[in-house]
Amino acid sequence: MTPGGSSAGAAAAAAAGYGPLHLGTDIGGSIRLPAGWCGLVGLKPSHGRVPIKPGYAGRVAGPLTRTVADAALMLGVLAQPDARDPTQLPPVDFMVRPLDLQGLRIGLLMNAGWGEAVQPEVAAAITAAAQAFERAGAIVEPLAPFTTREMADGIDRFWRMRSWLDISALAPERRAKVLPYILDWVAPAAGFDGGTVFRGYSQMQALREAANAACEPFDFVLSPVAPMPAYPAHLASP
């Protein structure tokens, strides 16, 4: 079965016990997906929390570990300031402490608003977690979808253009090694005009604002990482 990606090697190594601390990088799920499918703790930090170079929209680095305590210890080291990243944030204390759940407000997001439906096995796991938080005194309330197909499609068009430019710059012998699945995905970008790419990029900010507004009433949000469990490794996607 797939370990998820793109931090697939780090996640597989963590799950296999090769070592306690593994580093992932994430733009669209590359820490969170392998963490979810490999049964690990994965954290995509806020942008600028872990200095990174070269910087790119949404790209961050974070821990993939077998325990929350290990993730906190690793993040405390990764998040030290580095002047080479102009978006760096001041260091904070990542020590794990007991949290009183009594009265804590948790939003339960079971529907992203677009994409595949959440499969029963995944829904059951998330529901069980929500019930456990309720038994511990938290207030769990449903959170309505706040992302849209327009956001997803716009961001997708932007990343197609980025990938098409990268692939176009490859030497022919290297380009021949790119999966046909990926080539088919990026090909339409050759016909995108500047307005299409700009509007697509703008959907990242639209998503950011929608998420901020929808999640503001809650202390935490609980949701599936992906709507399905891990699928066969030879498939390029679900």
Strand order of the largest sheet: 1-3-2
What is the overall pLDDT average? 95
- The rough form would be described as globular
Helix content: 40-55%
Task: Determine Rg (CA atoms, Å).
Answer: 19 Å
Q: Got a strand count?
A: 6
What class, by secondary structure content? alpha/beta
Tell me the fraction of residues in β-strands, as a range: 5-15%
How far apart, in Å, are the first and last alpha carbons?
11 Å
Number of helices: 8
Largest sheet: 3 strands, antiparallel
Order of helices and strands: HEHEEHEHEHHHHE
Are there runs of 5+ residues with pLDDT below 50, and where? none
How would you describe this structure in keywords?
three-stranded parallel β-sheet, globular, 238 residues, 40% helix, alpha/beta, 6 strands, single chain
